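Q: What would this chain look like folded?
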Amino acid sequence: MSTLTPWALGPFEIILHAEMHYRDGDDLDRRIAIVGFDNAIELAIHTYLRNL
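A: My prediction, written as structure tokens:
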């Protein structure tokens, strides 16, 4: 198993959480999943650029 770089670890955890909401299938869960995916992308970009 490979270890994730620090800029990828936090977003990965958020993506896992969002994926669980997405798979539940309820409308509210899908909305929460969209917010989670968006947050993960923003966090990954912010952390990656800060550590350049």
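The chain has one domain: 6-50.
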